[in-house]
Structures are given as structure tokens and as C-alpha cells.
Amino acid sequence: MNSAGFDTYGLEPSETFREMAISKMKIDAEKLKLGGVEDLDYPKESFDFITFGAVLEHLYHPAENLKKATEWLKPGGIIHAEIPSSNWLISKLLNLYYSLKGTNYVSNLSPMHVPFHLYEFSEKSFGKFAEKNNLEIAYYKIEVCTPYHIPKVLHPIFKWYMGLTKSGLQLIIYLRKK
């Protein structure tokens, strides 16, 4: 976004990743703070757009982080998030398999192994959050992905079904501040 001419600011909780972003991506060190949402502050109503791309599912308190970010957002501003959908078909099928095997394993949440997802979300969960926090859902979409671990010959059927039932992997959502 910076290279497209936007005035951008960011935060990065990992010192190593922050340094890499500054050196390899030529990001202005003054505009990339070290810390997480819960650790940092910006003036109220400072931003038109805030993005949480592949972030919320890794946070211990995603609602608190979103609520704090909402304070930084100008009226009419947008919060964007891309997160795992709680309605993902493949995850449901894998969880059924684990259940039928008699285990208590789940495939969708993985706090102990890559990708370290602590949460997954739905349009409905964001709707409830929006109602309580002076936001509205401006747009959302469920993105269908490649169904890995399924024979390739079945991919078109799975993709068609996930599109039809909105049971794809990725939830993309835009929340507007009222």
C-alpha cells in the first residue's frame, strides 16, 4: 500500500520481522512500531483503513484487538480481515474422520502446531461484534481454496460444492465504522 502512494503505518510484534521489513522492504522505521495492538497506541480516529490480513486467528484476544483498533478508525473508516472460516468443508470432513476413529483431534484449530490457529470465525460472529462496537459489515466473501489432501480429480467437485454452500476456507470481511 505504501508503494501505491498511501500514507501507511504498521505494527509488528516480532523484532526480527520488523527489522526484516525495514531492511528488505525499505519500510520507514518511524512508521513501523514494534509491538502488538494490545501494547501500542495511536491517536483516536487516526486511520481510514486498518487491515488484519491473516492475523486475528493467531491472537489470544482477537475481539479486544479489534475493539482497540476500532478506536483508531475514523468514522466511515474500514477494518479489513482475512481469517479462516469456521464453516470450512474440509475441516468438517477431517473432524468427522477423527471422530469416527474415536479420537478427540480436530483439524481446524491448531494452537500447538503450524499454522498455530487459536480461533476461526464466521460472518455471524463478526456481525455480533459489529453490533456491539459501532460497526457494520460493509462486505464479506467466503473464498474457496484448493482442497489439499483430496485427490486432484475431485477438486472441481469440492470447489463447486464449497462455492455453493459458502464452505470455503477463507473469510474476507470489511467492517465500516458508523
* Biggest sheet statistics: 4 strands, mixed
CATH superfamily: Vaccinia Virus protein VP39
What is the total domain count? 1
Kindly report how far apart the N and C termini lie: 24 Å
CATH fold-level assignment: Rossmann fold
Strand content: 15-25%
Walkthrough of the structure:
It is globular, with a radius of gyration of 18 Å. With 178 residues, it is α/β, with parallel strands linked by helices. The protein has helices at 15-24, 62-72, 89-100, 123-132, 155-165, and strands spanning 10-12, 32-34, 47-53, 73-84, 135-143, 170-177. The longest helix is centred in the middle third of the chain and has 12 residues, at 89-100. Helix content is 30%, strand content 24%. It has a 4-stranded mixed beta sheet with strand order 3-4-6-5. Strand 3, helix 2 and strand 4 form a beta-alpha-beta unit. It has a single domain, classed as 3-Layer(aba) Sandwich (Rossmann fold), CATH 3.40.50.
Question: What's the gist of this structure?
Answer:
The protein is 30% helix and 24% strand.
Name a few traits of the molecule.
178 residues; alpha/beta; Rossmann fold; two-stranded parallel ribbon; globular
